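User: I'm writing a short report section on ligand binding and want a predicted complex to refer to. Could you take this sequence and adenosine-5'-diphosphate and write out the structure as tokens? A short remark afterwards would be nice.
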Amino acid sequence: MHRTVICPGSFDPVTNGHIDIITRASMMFDDVIVGVFDNSEKHPAFSIEERIDFLNRTVGDIPNVRVIACDGLLAQCAKDMAATAVVRGLRAVSDFEYEFQMALINRKLNPELDTVFLASDSSYTYLSSSAVKNVASHGGDISNFVPAVIHDEVFNRINRKGNK
Ligand code: ADP
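Assistant: Sure. The structure tokens for the complex follow:
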């Protein structure tokens, strides 16, 4: 059986924590779709095109990983892409309640869709896109948080915004 999974998220911007989850998923499943949701209600710092570009430059060379834009319901997006599971990273107990609720809702909406949780690598449990933006907006060093290929773009954009 060919197993396709979807890793959904805002990826605003992609961090080393996201890359760890996507890379590990790519070793466990045949195909990994990274579904980038617009999430405009979260007022993302980067456009969906920029977020997809950042992802393509960091995980785009993994042969079984594909980055796409998604909108609407994750359960529907997964169905359209023939994904049988959602892969989500769990950093801490604080992630659990929301993630558990979403997993159950998604399974109600699409009974064939399961959710697989990968425990965050201990070196990334503290890491989130929000933390990256917060540190960069104050001119702090984000070089351990985001991949080198996107570092300057992320830092310059957020730092400029933060200093406005
Ligand atoms: P969302 O807005 O849907 O939470 P994110 O872009 O914040 O999307 O996260 C996408 C996925 O990556 C989620 O499954 C999230 O739990 C996971 N993730 C984010 N940061 C980390 C990290 N540091 N370690 C492991 N998983 C992470």
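A remark for your report: The longest strand covers residues 31-37. The mean pLDDT is 94.
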